[in-house]
Write a structure and sequence with these properties.
Layout (H helix, E strand, L loop, with lengths): L18 E7 L2 E6 L4 E5 L5 E2 L5 H42 L22 E3 L3 H32 L2 H6 L1 H19 L5 E5 L2 E5 L5 E5 L4 E2 L3 E3 L4 E3 L1 E2 L2 E2 L3 H8 L7 E2 L2 H10 L3 H30 L1
Parallel strand pairs: 9-14
Antiparallel strand pairs: 1-2, 2-3, 3-4, 5-6, 6-7, 7-8, 9-10, 10-11, 12-13
Helix pairs in contact: 1-2, 2-4, 4-7, 6-7
Length: about 300
């Protein structure tokens, strides 16, 4: 347009251009393109010239391109992780559609109502199989996600961006490894109650027997002074939850019921993987949070 805002002629920009702002500059016109990280130069006649450039501008544009590429990889990785989670949920649904009735211990026939006989309860094979499938699926998801992130980092051609994924992917792999290690500690365990004594067998095959009054428990675990045994959460239990509620917990009336936090401390003090894994996760979360805060402080100070 001329000074009177009368249209004179049209200036053509490259295909895919996304102009944001325009600026007269020394007899030329500069047009910024945020989408493509370019600053176009046009003559007064509307002819496209070489892009405007300077040392400072090139640095800004290079940082902008790197950030754009980084966030694009983040979005692709997020989509990949979301799809993997959907696949995992679908497989999980297929697995849980199988019989959900856990097998009872041989010491508990279906018509048994007495709670005075000695009992010996072991993890149900179906529950163990479901946990094993879930752990394998978690491992496969972690490996696939790590490979996808690696491929995206390589295709980006910017290895610094690839390194930025090292911490979150390593953290995810570490969490998966901890969960797998803790879950495997539930296999091979057993609970025995005979009159006023409690016997626990841990995942290493060690047995510990004590009087019921010396034992502690909550809805997720039981412990003697020497050994702790994790029962699982109500929605993901290694033992039949109905059997625990009907046959085991009533027999523990002389034992001491403790809070969840007290039981976690007992699991940790007895070196049970479930207690150790929780401590490791907490330490990891605290360390990761401290690292992010420190990194932000350093970046803020640098600017």
């Amino acid at each position: 347009f001329d000074d009177a805002w009368q249209f004179t002629h049209k200036a053509s920009l490259p295909a895919g251009a996304d102009p944001i702002s325009i600026l007269p500059f020394h007899g030329e016109v500069l047009i910024s393109d945020w989408k493509n990280d370019r600053v176009y130069r046009l003559s007064a006649n509307g002819d496209l010239l070489n892009d405007f450039s300077s040392a400072g501008l090139e640095q800004v544009l290079a940082e902008s391109r790197a950030k754009r590429l980084q966030y694009r990889i983040y979005s692709y990785a997020g989509i990949a992780l979301f799809l993997l989670v959907l696949v995992a949920i679908f497989i999980r649904i297929l697995v849980t559609r199988q019989s959900t009735q856990l097998a009872k211990s041989r010491a508990f026939p279906k018509n048994e109502s007495s709670t005075e006989e000695a009992i010996w309860l072991e993890p149900d094979p179906k529950a163990v199989r479901k946990i094993t499938i879930a752990l394998r699926l978690l491992t496969i998801m972690t490996i696939v996600f790590a490979v996808l992130v690696l491929i995206l980092a390589i295709l980006s051609g910017n290895y610094l961006i690839g390194l930025s994924f090292l911490l979150p992917v390593s953290g995810l792999a570490g969490i998966c490894a901890i969960i797998s290690w803790a879950s495997r500690a539930n296999i091979g365990t057993a609970i025995g109650i005979n009159e006023n004594t409690l016997t626990l067998q841990d995942h290493k095959g060690r047995r510990s027997t004590c009087a019921l009054r010396d034992a502690i428990y909550d809805l997720t675990a039981i412990a003697t002074p020497d050994v702790a045994l994790f029962l699982g959460q109500p929605h993901m239990s290694v033992y039949d939850r109905q059997t625990l509620n009907d046959q085991v917990f009533p027999r523990l009336k002389d034992a001491r019921r403790v809070s969840v936090w007290a039981m976690q401390k007992a699991l940790f003090s007895r070196r049970h993987p479930q207690g150790l894994s929780l401590a490791m996760v907490l330490i990891g979360v605290i360390a990761g949070t401290a690292w992010i805060l420190l990194d932000n402080l350093i970046r803020t100070g640098a600017h």
